Amino acid sequence: MKKYQDHYFKKAKQDSYPARSVYKLQEIQKRFSLLRTGQNVLDLGATPGSWAIFTAQKIGPQGKLLAVDMNMTDISFPSQVTFVQGDVLNPDAALQTEIEQRTPFDLVFSDMAPKTTGIKLRDQAQSVELALAAMNLAESVLTSSGSAAIKVFQGPDVPDFLNEMRKIFSKVKTFKPKSSRPESTEVFVLGLLRK
Asked: How confident is the model at residue 2 (pLDDT cuts 50, 70, 90)?
């Protein structure tokens, strides 16, 4: 195992997080200060649960978090977190109801990623499809000044995705956390202050 993987992997175990991905969100938070006490947050692609645990700490017991993923998790979350198994690309009635009952959200996070095939263009296209789904959902559920952080794999479709984000948000920024694996093409696109 390479040293950088080792460091974040071990750190996650020491800090009692199920995955190293939490450090990406910590870096996003440190740079953009998206999370605040009492917020209502939607977390897409939530398993294994590190982002939800960190978010719950930041929003506190007064906050609310709806965590959604296609896969189940056996993590026991704090009381302000509701976990729902569901597919954002093809939401069933139960997922739609959960989202509608909790709208509007202050923040939408998407750490969704496709099952990678190793075919770079295909993986990137599927990543953009997930990012667009997260963006469209964010547009319909965010408060008027709400924000979103959406993961996408870099590639030829990303400039178009950024243009779509600029139609919805006052500011759009891209951010690659240091805790992302160096060979990873992932970046996070931040849409700040929904228009």
From this structure: very low
